[in-house]
Amino acid sequence: MQVVLHTNYGDITLAMHTETAPKTVENFLQYARDGFYENTLFHRVIDNFMVQGGGFEPGMSQKDTRGTIENEAKTAQPNRTGTVAMARTPDPHSASSQFFINVNDNHFLDFQNETPNGFGYCVFAEVVEGMDVVNNIKGVKTSTAGFHADVPVEDVVIKSVTVQENA
């Protein structure tokens, strides 16, 4: 199964990791099918680290989400360049809609142990087309917006999302 993020920078195609992160994939797919990600931003961009999206609309207005999900980082793939993981707060089981694309091998984000500091970030997909788009996004100029840091100066928008059920 694949999901295409149609952004104002181009398309990014993600292959879902249904075997290693099934609950996380289903959560992401539900948000995608519901149209939740349409007109949301890549709101946090840090070159040599990651680009994060899936929770804010233009103007940095945060969207309401469904409940949080169980962290499946223990069985997930490692956080390497081009993989997609769930963003969360310091609570290991606090992920909801926000995700990030790793633009570097970020193995310090991998599962280490079942402690708040060791739980890691669950990889649930990987970029199979459009890494050039991700690389263009990672290089945008950023600033602060309110108490948010690393916010692109010009909006990077997920215009729509296509779920390819048979891909």
UniProtKB/TrEMBL annotation:
GO biological process, alphabetically ordered: protein folding
Keywords: Isomerase, Rotamase
Catalysed reaction, written as an equation: [protein]-peptidylproline (omega=180) = [protein]-peptidylproline (omega=0)
PPIase cyclophilin-type domain segment(s): 1-163
Pfam families referenced in this protein's UniProt entry, alphabetically: Pro_isomerase
PROSITE patterns xrefs: CSA_PPIASE_1 (PS00170), CSA_PPIASE_2 (PS50072)
Group of enzyme by EC: isomerase
Top-level taxon in the UniProt lineage: Bacteria
Keyword Isomerase among UniProt keywords: yes
GO-annotated molecular function: peptidyl-prolyl cis-trans isomerase activity
E.C. numbers: 5.2.1.8
InterPro entries assigned to the protein according to its UniProt record, in alphabetical order: Cyclophilin-like_dom_sf, Cyclophilin-type_PPIase, Cyclophilin-type_PPIase_CS, Cyclophilin-type_PPIase_dom, E_coli_cyclophilin_A-like
Functional note: PPIases accelerate the folding of proteins. It catalyzes the cis-trans isomerization of proline imidic peptide bonds in oligopeptides.
Family according to the record: Belongs to the cyclophilin-type PPIase family.
Protein name: Peptidyl-prolyl cis-trans isomerase
